[in-house]
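tool=predict chain=A
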Amino acid sequence: MFNEFKTFIARGNVIDMAVGIVVGAAFTAIVTSMVSDIINPVIGMLLGGIDFSNYYVDLSMGNYESLDAAKAAGAPLIMYGLFINAVIKFLIVAFVVFLMVKQINRLKETMVKKDAAAAAEEAAAPAATPEDIQLLREIRDALKK
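tool=predict ok
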């Protein structure tokens, strides 16, 4: 059972997946910062100083000064501003992944075309006769004379 597990872990797919998860987690921090520190302030400026992260609906009908005050009071909240931020983050990540996959597919396509051209070139060129076959032919021809 241990050997089977070792074989499973040693497969390239599992290792590739693990690397992808680690890189994805690191990428999430970058995207979060980009959305929070760059994109949301620009969107807020364009919309008149709106900060989505502070938008919420208080289901207890209390009057709280901020989202933090409502959270501290334990009020039931619908934090749709944070949801809007999450949607923006998702769209950015999805777009970046789309661009990466598009480039990878383009590279694969180029490699397939090169391989196909090389295979066609190889098929068109006559195969070189091995030395031992040439030597045997020369001996045969010499014996015929």
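The radius of gyration is 32 Å. The chain has a mean pLDDT of 82.
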